[in-house]
Amino acid sequence: MASRRLRKGELGIPIPAPGVVGVLLRRSRCLAGVGKSLLYFATVEHPSSFKRSLGLFDSTMLVVGSMIGSGIFIVSADIARTVGSAGWLLVVWVITGLVTLAAALSYGELASMMPQAGGQYVYLREAYGPLVGFLYGWTLFLVIQTGTIAAVAVAFAKYTSVLLPWFSESHKLLRLGPAQVSAAQLLAIAIIALLTAVNWRGIREGKVIQNVFTSAKVLALLALIVLGIFVARDHDVVTLNLAGFWQASRSVVERGAVHFELLSAGALLAALGVAQVGSLFSADAWNNITFTAGEVAEPHRNVPLSLALGTGIVIVLYLLANVAYLSVLPITGDPKGFDAFARGVQYATSDRVATAAASRIMGDPAAWAMAVLIMVSTFGCANGLILAGARVYYAMAKDGVFFRGVGELNANAVPGAALVLQSFWAALLCLSGSYGDLLDYVIFAVLIFYVLTVGGLFILRKRRPDAERPYKAWGYPVVPLLYMIAATAIALDLLVLKPRYTWPGIGIVLLGVPVYFGWKIRAAATQKPG
Q1: Same domain for 222 and 257?
Q2: Helices 86-113 and 265-282: angle between axes, nearest 10 degrees
């Protein structure tokens, strides 16, 4: 494709690679809205297609690395306070594992049918029409992908402050209107910018980062599991946890004292649904490999296989990690406890259960060791999310429902404009809200679209019975149907019990409807002659 000037309204992004730097237009203007800070640039020749550079190992590492962030190291504390016993804590993770694996196996068929950049966006578009596909892409950009990137980047900064206190959230650097910006927020934004720059240089650079950091965190997590279960297991702790293994209760702190409310059958079911927020967030992003299907070698085989392998590996690691926690820490505790044993899993300091468990295993160096592990984990997770998410916005732009310039590949055969726009919005999210708020928004929106996508499997089986399906969903129709029932039940549970966060999530999705028609009207207007 020959070099060209960008039309008015297109988003142009500079290419920093030596020898292919874009020429700044003399009369460039700032793009209205979110793109005001980005300049128009002329572009050099662009590749017309992605490079299929991801093999089975790379794809599996993308699944594993995108799933394992900071959640597994902290959310078990909140789950323990919600369900109150070791047995039910493990049940929460088992439910999460079964639900996630069922969805991944169902997505495998869709991925083998449509191995294109954009993944889930494409599946929803083909099953329900362009509006539903757009609503997913819109929500992915506003909340799901960028919100998760922001949450993971902030988590990286929080644990960096363990080693370097200057990056603490309490260290305020400047004020922007009513908001104060901390050193931790600036570090989170810097990490997003760094990883965006790496992925701008090409899929090879992105996958090298992903493979190295994913391998490192898997090995480190395995070490924690082995030490907790086989080396430092505390017989008294295990006996204590087994004694009340199925005694479900909700832990509440009132006036400085801990109260335990026993859960009836109905209350227990509701608690299990609410507890899924943390565990599902920790196990999310497995679908990111579908976004990059256009860059996977032998996608009909490798995408479904990496989905199954990646989710299976992570779920096993998560279950074993919780067994390790329960081998060295009692499930119940007191927030005023003088050490990790007294605080238990429920009231681990700042919910850092993994750090509390490590302190029982290795003593004082535990905080530093776990901080390094979680920094490695969140860095690799953020890279996978940044790499994959941009491909969805690229596919949307190709369909004419996003900034046209976002649908261009840069000289390195990656969607450079989409990467920059994604990083810009994720950086803004780093400056607003809390980790918990983003988590709640993300999970509800994710569940809505996961259910719709798996439902699309039934629609496409009927509508396109003769379509090529190199892989067919395991257990169809029972497994996909059970997934839809379970995920819908969890979503409804959250809608009732956490309305402060879930209802705004619905609003974000529906806000995309007028935006979609605005894009369509704009596209039609630009196509009119004269």
Answers
A1: yes
A2: 50
Confidence check: pLDDT of 15 > 80: no
The dihedral region occupied by 3, where left means phi > 0, alpha psi between -120 and 50, and beta the remainder, is beta
Instruction: Give me the domain span that covers residue 291.
Output: 46-525
Q: Strand 257-262 vs strand 249-254: parallel, antiparallel, or unpaired?
A: antiparallel
List, for residues 412-462, the tens digit of each pLDDT value: 999 999 999 999 999 988 887 554 565 566 677 888 899 999 999 999 999
Query: Distances from the Cα of 185 to the Cαs of 379, 380, 420, in angstroms?
Result: 15, 18, 18
Asked if 119 and 31 sit in the same domain, the reply is no
Strands 172-176 and 179-182: antiparallel
Q: 142 - beta bridge partners?
A: none
Q: Tell me the pLDDT of the chain averaged across its residues.
A: 86
Distance CA 52, CA 317 (A): 29
- Phi, psi (5° rounding) for residue 273? -65, -45
pTM: 0.87
- Around Cβ 135, how many Cβ atoms within 10 Å? 25
Greatest extent of the chain over all pairs of C-alpha atoms, in Å = 81
- In 329-473, which ranges are continuous DSSP H helix? 340-343, 353-362, 366-398, 416-430, 435-463
